[in-house]
């Protein structure tokens, strides 16, 4: 037993001697080796004697002496990008409304709302739908527009250049606006225009019309006979449907084209008519077979007083005969 104890003591002494003879590099590689911190010799056995964790006042504030970390963490990266974006935002103009946006192309001409027409309206192929869009003027339209629907807005005037260059425009529907005037140059130079739909507006006169027109609907306006030129319809050799009901007309428009099929004049102020309102009095063999639909109901005129005015018609007008 004594021999065994002697051997154990000898082994312990040899281990102490080996630890004392370790080089600096070897001690740094050993996580359990003795650590030298200034005048303190810190080991796992005396840690609580060197630093008392319960006394925070004695802890040293290293401040800027902390080593700089060369690696980039997610938090630091996010902070850096946020700082860069904040600095970039500070360089923006203080008044953003003064900055002009880049051009957006042909369809980007601003409408009443300051937005491109095809954002305010719906553009589908060659059709533009601007119904109930709170428009006050005709918006700039794509050159390929063939059908325009701008109903139930607040448009009050049609300017000379509103349809400039729209050579493919076939139909204009401006029902339910507040249009009181149309410039004579606005429609006259539209070679493909066939349908002009303008009911429920405030027109007192008709503008110059292109010879291509086939359907003219001006119902429920304030149209007066003095607002229709004597030769307004003579050159419209393709006109088939003329709707002038619910206006302030006191006479049947003269020089109606032979192509006319339907003429609606109901609910006006017509009291009389000329003998040649529909027929050529000098050519008794003349007939107007296409004109089968004439409405004069709702007027104060007594149609029975003008029998010679209907001899060329395939059927009598609708209206009061007593």
Automatic annotation (TrEMBL):
Protein location: Secreted, Extracellular space, Extracellular matrix
UniProt xrefs under InterPro entries: Leu-rich_rpt, Leu-rich_rpt_typical-subtyp, LRR_dom_sf, Mimecan/Epiphycan/Opticin
Pfam families assigned to the protein according to its UniProt record, in alphabetical order: LRR_8
Keyword field: Disulfide bond, Extracellular matrix, Glycoprotein, Leucine-rich repeat, Repeat, Secreted, Signal
Example of a GO biological process term: articular cartilage development
SUPFAM superfamilies: L domain-like
GO CC, alphabetical: extracellular matrix; extracellular space
Record-annotated membrane-spanning stretches: none
Record-given protein name: Opticin
